[in-house]
Each structure stands twice: as C-alpha cells, then as structure tokens.
Amino acid sequence: MFKMKSIIRSLLVLLLVMSFTSCVRDNISDFPIANDNSKVFLSVSINVAGEDSRTTRAEDYTFDPTPFGGEDGNGDHKGETYERTVNNMSMLFFHSEKEDLTDVDVTIDNVIYFPTVTPDGKRTLAVEVDSKFLNDTKLRFLVVANVGDLSAYQGRKLSDVRDQLITDVFKRTDNPTFTKKGELAGYSTFVMSSRGQSSLTIKSGSGTKSDPYLIDHEIERLAARIDIMPHVQRYKLDDKTHLCKYCYNVTQGSDVIGGFVLEYVRPYNVLTSKEYVFRRTATDASLANLKYLGLEEADRNKQNTNYVVDPTSLNKSEATFKYPKNTDEYWANASYESFYQTRDAGKTHTHSTNPRASDEKPYDPETAYYILDYVKENTSFDNNEQYATGLVFKGKYYEKSDWVVATDAEIKAGGSSHPKDGAVGTDKAYTYVIRHSDPTGSGTTNDIMHYGIVRNNIYRVRIDGITGKGPDGMKVTLNVRKWATYTHDETTM
C-alpha cells in the first residue's frame, strides 16, 4: 500500500513538472525550433504606412472640407513605385521589458541585414539566422530601410539608435525632371523606419530556405510630399510648342477685376536640418511625456491633441531652411531659376474613375494633380508662421483691360480666360502656409499642429481661385493624406 501511494505521488509530481514545462515552452515561443543550435531562415513582409490597397472611400479622390484629425485621417493614397521601393533593410533586435524605447541602457543584441527584396518589393529575401535568439517573448526589434547595413550598431545602446539623426531622407538628382504624367523623375531611395515597435510574431513559414519564417512589419517614409492641383482649364499659349500656362480670373465679389497667369511654384521654409530616424510625439513643449514611435491623436472634434516633434520643434531659430520666408515683393522679383515651372496635371487619385488629363480634356479639376516636391518634417509648438513650410505661387498679374474672360461655351470646349494678345503683365507672387490640422477650416495658431509638415503624408494643394488684388487673395483647398481635407481663403506671408 505504501509503495502504491509512493508510485502515485511520483507520477503526479512528474505530470505536474511536464505540464509546467509545456506551459513555459508555449509561452516562450511560437517558433517550432528543434534546438538552440539550429539554423533557420527569416523573411520580412514589408508594409509601407498609408498604402492599404483596401482603401476605396470616396474621400480618396474628392475634397470634402471636413478634415479628420488623428492618425487615420480621411484616407490613404498609394505612393509611386519609386517612392515605396525598399532596396535594403536592417532589423535591430533588443530585449526590453518596456513597450516603448525609454529603456536607454538596453543594448542592441543583434542586427540582421537584408541586402535585397523580392522583385515585387513586398518582402525581403530570406536570410539565414541563428534560432537561439528568437526564443524570447521579450525580444523586440526596429527596422530602418534604404540606409544600408547597420550591423555596426550591434552592441551599442538603444538610445544611440533611438536618437539617431539623418540628413538625407531621400536622394535626388541635381536636375530633377518632370514627366508628362505629372510625376517627378530623379528621386529615389526614400529612407523608411518602423511605424511602431514590434515583438517577434510569426505570420507563416516553417523556417526552411524555401519556406522561411515570415514576420509582418509596418514602416513609414521620413519624407513628406507636396502635390499641386491647378484646378483651372489650361490655356495653350502656343499651339506649336503646346506651352501651357494656368490662368485665373481675379474676382471681387461676383466681378472679374483682372487675371493671373501662374508660371512657377516653389516650397519655402524647406527644413534642411537633420530629422529623427524614428517619429516621436508629445502633448506639450515640456516633453515630459515624450513618446517614441508615438502616433498623432485627436479629440472628438477631430482636432489634434498632441504634437509631432522634430529636432528643432522647441527652438526653430536653430533650424536651417532652404528658401527662408521672405516678403511677397521679394518673391515677385526673385530669380525664376529657383522655382519649379508649372506643368501638366496628368496624374489622378488612386481610386478615381475619371479620365486623366489629355489634349481632348485638358483638365479635370476634381482629379488631376502633379507632384511638386518632397520635404522634411517641420513642426513647432507655437505655430510660428515665420518658420512654417509654405508655398510661393509666382506669375504675371493683368489688369482687367488686358484680360480676356472666357465664356461658359469656351470653357466647356477646353478654353480658358487669358491675357490679351500683346499684353504685358506685372510680376506678382502669392503665398500659402501649409496647414496640418484645422478641422473647422477656421482654426488659429493657438490650435495644436495648426501648421506643420509630418513624415509620410501627402499635402495636396488645390488652387480654387483668387479674390482681390491683395497678397492674401489665393483661395486654396488642402487635402492631407492620410490626414485631412480643409479649405482656406488664404493668406499671405
């Protein structure tokens, strides 16, 4: 009897140990690894933020003046192929109890470099890795793409990576050109980084070379993009050269008092200072609650409740800018060489069913746009217009006596208002300060993130008309992807 009780007791202990071991194993890892010394193959599925192919909302190609604050906004817009191309990628692994990047003394345990990706750009090619470091639920990683091999960061502190600054967030040729489709040529290698920190979670795969473990991860571009929608019929100045100028009636109430021919556009206050590799946010200038990899947040009225922080947000006087803010008189007389010449708005929204611009239909105001330029993140806590990124619209102004107002029939036939033959206009410039969060369309600089440029957003500017002779006459609708849409009767510098 005693022996029987001892046997039963031993069996119960054994079962408990086996059960405990099984539970621990299940909690430690989802990877079916045979032993700690085995080699496995790893691949990463690349998801660029803002490029959800499932986005089919009407807001993706219309301009509803009811902008949304927060991270999601009114919809996404899929980037151009060269904008979303991942040439190489580094994964930086570290162990941390914390879900954020505040554990500054943690070291980078391992760096895996993926030198190439699949031809479709959707995932990295598999690389061989040691399996032993994958068996840990506290193992986390960050990703940086298109900067080459970051293996030198192995053994360094997490803070060295977290606080890293970068100057060149994309590459551009010395003389970027414009295609007939309304896109910029000469840009490439857009730097991208983690939109959030990740722990290792297998999506699929068995770890073999032919069937590697697959991990999902979302990355975002450090750059932002500015698009222009001229929103006017093109006027063919010369039928032989097909040189197109954009012509606008200048109105006062219901009366046409003159005309403006837009010839050049250029961003000003383009930040050239270094940018954080990873996004960070804060609710105020104290930075006491600074969040690394933080997302934008909004209240129930769709107004931003936190700031995106760039390295100069606290003191914009320390920033360096290309084309610093100046007076309208200065812009009107500035050299044309530093401006981008206007061009055909030959691109349409991702999900638009309307046709592209063509010679037969020179402009569809609801859909056609062109890419103007790429810029760095530029934010502040005080919305100081002196340092906010904006646009200069430069061209020729014509008095009413020198201006031909197109009839409805002429407009329907593809024509436009235009200067009289032989008329000589005067140089003029309008300016527009780019907003980031203004859900009412009548916000002030007291509102959080009223002005700003935030990474991985498209700022699409539609010119709706010009009112009055003053420098604040440009009427503009701004659509921010993936952020918001709002209309302003705009403004000068």
The secondary structure category is mainly beta
Q: Which value, in Å, is the CA radius of gyration?
A: 28 Å
How far apart are the first and last residues' alpha carbons, in Å? 97 Å
Estimate the global geometry from the Cα principal axes: elongated
Largest sheet: 11 strands, mixed
The tally of helices reads 5
Strand tally is 31
Low-confidence stretches: 11-36, 52-67, 483-493
The pLDDT mean sits at 78
Domains (count): 2
Helix content: under 10%
Q: Beta fraction of the residues?
A: 25-35%
Summarize the structure.
With 493 residues, this protein is mainly beta.
Describe this structure in words.
With 493 residues, the chain is mostly beta strands. The chain is 10% helix and 34% strand. The strands form seven sheets. Strands 13, 14, 15, 16, 23, 24, 25, 28, 29, 30 and 31 form an eleven-stranded mixed beta sheet that branches. Strands 1, 2, 3, 4, 5, 9, 10, 11 and 12 form a nine-stranded mixed beta sheet that branches. The radius of gyration is 28 Å and the shape is elongated. The N and C termini lie far apart (97 Å). The relative contact order is 0.16. Mean pLDDT is 78; it is low at 11-36, 52-67 and 483-493.
Features:
disordered C terminus; nine-stranded mixed beta sheet; eleven-stranded mixed beta sheet; 31 strands; 10% helix; 493 residues; 2 domains
SSE layout and pairing:
Layout: H1 2-28, E1 39-48, H2 81-84, E2 89-95, E3 108-114, E4 127-130, E5 139-145, H3 158-162, E6 165-166, E7 171-178, E8 184-188, E9 192-194, E10 198-199, E11 202-204, E12 213-221, E13 224-229, E14 234-238, E15 243-252, E16 255-268, E17 270-271, E18 275-276, E19 280-282, E20 291-292, E21 307-308, E22 321-322, H4 328-333, E23 340-341, E24 370-375, E25 390-399, E26 403-404, H5 408-412, E27 418-419, E28 426-433, E29 458-467, E30 474-481, E31 484-489
Parallel strand pairs: 1-12, 13-29, 15-29
Antiparallel strand pairs: 1-4, 2-3, 2-5, 5-9, 5-10, 6-18, 7-8, 9-12, 11-12, 13-24, 14-15, 15-16, 16-23, 16-25, 17-22, 19-20, 19-21, 25-28, 26-27, 29-30, 30-31
